[in-house]
């Protein structure tokens, strides 16, 4: 696997290294040893699937407060999405910065989201599915979020949102988040 840092400290674009032949290809999507060698979390406790019917669907931006903070490894298994990580760690050198990566079933790319960062995505085509591993169990009492349209962060979403939940639409701006 190839690990490429993005604009948020500790976040990485993860690309597979396919081994192809006449049958197609084979590649590792995750390897605990390779992640550990990069100094990244290599222990995940839960896997989630998010199915989205409409292009433009926006989910996020989500995180969990300590002690339930989580690392995510996000991949698109059907369709295409624009995956976003935002640094909400006040002590971080990249506080307030965001990075976006296009993930698709065709490019087999993943995004590694470190603890203390908000995560969300927007679907780019109909019938898009995301699959992601998380390092901590979901704890409703620790749930937090960041406004997807906070002007201080300034995420450049590729499409106008077509679907967003009332809860995701109501998350506060960055200045109001206390981890």
TrEMBL record:
Domain of life of the native organism: Bacteria
Enzyme superclass (EC): isomerase
Record-marked site positions (Participates in a stacking interaction with the thymidine ring of dTDP-4-oxo-6-deoxyglucose): 138
Active-site annotation: 62 (proton acceptor), 132 (proton donor)
Cellular component terms (Gene Ontology): cytosol
GO terms for MF: dTDP-4-dehydrorhamnose 3,5-epimerase activity
Catalysed reaction, written as an equation: dTDP-4-dehydro-6-deoxy-alpha-D-glucose = dTDP-4-dehydro-beta-L-rhamnose
Quaternary state and interactors: Homodimer.
Family named by the database record: Belongs to the dTDP-4-dehydrorhamnose 3,5-epimerase family.
Protein name as annotated: dTDP-4-dehydrorhamnose 3,5-epimerase
The species this protein was found in: Acidihalobacter ferrooxydans
């Amino acid at each position: 696997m190839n690990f490429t840092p993005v604009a948020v400290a500790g976040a990485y674009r993860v690309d597979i290294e396919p081994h192809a032949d006449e049958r197609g290809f084979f590649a590792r999507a995750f390897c605990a040893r390779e992640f550990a060698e990069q100094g990244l979390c290599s222990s995940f406790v839960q896997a989630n699937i998010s199915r989205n019917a409409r292009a433009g669907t926006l989910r996020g931006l989500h995180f969990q407060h300590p002690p339930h903070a989580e690392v995510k490894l996000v991949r698109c298994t059907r369709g295409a999405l624009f995956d976003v990580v935002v640094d909400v760690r006040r002590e971080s050198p990249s506080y307030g910065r965001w990075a976006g990566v296009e993930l698709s079933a065709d490019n087999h790319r993943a995004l590694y989201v470190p603890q203390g960062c908000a995560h969300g995505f927007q679907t780019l085509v109909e019938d898009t599915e995301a699959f992601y591993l998380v390092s901590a169990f979901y704890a409703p009492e620790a749930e937090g979020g960041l406004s997807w349209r906070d002007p201080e962060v300034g995420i450049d979403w590729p499409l106008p949102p077509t679907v967003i939940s009332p809860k995701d639409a109501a998350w506060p701006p960055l200045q109001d988040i206390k981890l």
